[in-house]
Amino acid sequence: DIQMTQSPSSLSASVGDRVTITCQASQDISIYLNWYQQKPGKAPNLLIYDASNLDTGVPSRFSGSGSGTDFTFTISSLQPEDVATYYCQQYDSLPSVTFGQGTRLDIK
Amino acid sequence: EVQLVESGGALVQPGGSLRLSCVASGFTFSSYSMNWVRQAPGKGLEWVSYISSTSGTINYADSVKGRFTISRDNAKNSLYLQMNSLADDDTAVYYCARDPWATVTLDVWGQGTTVIVSS
């Protein structure tokens, strides 16, 4: 199975800060990586697919990059409504897919 | 409005069975692959099962293979998950999710239904 390792596992940042989360795959997954946001008590929400494509309606302050084994998720200017846990997910090894362990983001 | 609504979650004893349902609205259900994903209390996301739009392709996570059965009824815009031989570690919120490209890229999620396995 492909393992996905996110870092950090949690972070605190101030409103307006640039925030970066990384996700490392245990083997090459090309660009077959998605990012989801899960706000407390809510279902996950797709933000980015295929490593760098913003889903419909997602604010442009969110972005993703990377390929192969190393991926980055960035919030260019943190907003209070961005408090959430963020998950990466690989789908290179269909039918089996795996999520990262999550990164919990809150406001300092 | 595109919507998925799950139901059927309950408290069940170890070894018991449960059937979850997910009703879709606001889109052409029969054109989309669907998935179940679960989240144990305080834990991360775990993919459970996939079914293609015509039910021609079905996949399961190793952790549920042989115990869970996914199915759908396109005439009723409904997705199901039959869960047998339930164990404590099946306790979770179960989400159904739409899969527009049949790649387990999940663009619409339901609100979830809670399954608790406990004696």
Mean pLDDT of chain B: 98
Compute the gyration radius of chain B: what is it? 13 Å
Order of helical and strand elements of chain B: EEEEEEEEEEE
Largest sheet of chain B: 7 strands, mixed
Report the biggest beta sheet of chain A as strand number plus sense, adding barrel if it closes: 7 strands, mixed
Separate helix tally of chain A: 0
* Alpha-beta classification of chain A: mainly beta
Low-pLDDT residue spans of chain A: none
Helix content of chain B: under 10%
Would you write up a description of this structure?
The complex is a heterodimer of chains A (108) and B (119). With 108 residues, chain A is mostly beta strands. Chain A has no helices and 11 strands. Chain A has strands at 4-7, 10-13, 19-25, 33-38, 45-49, 53-54, 62-67, 70-75, 84-90, 98-99, 103-107. In chain A, the strands form 2 sheets. In chain A, strands 2, 4, 5, 6, 9, 10 and 11 form a 7-stranded mixed β-sheet that branches. A 4-stranded antiparallel β-sheet of chain A has the order 1-3-8-7, with no helix packed on it. With 119 residues, chain B is mostly beta strands. Helix content of chain B is 0%, strand content 50%. Chain B is built from no helices and 11 strands. In chain B, the strands form 2 sheets. In chain B, strands 2, 4, 5, 6, 9, 10 and 11 form a 7-stranded mixed β-sheet that branches. Chain B has a 4-stranded antiparallel β-sheet with strand order 1-3-8-7, with no helix packed on it.
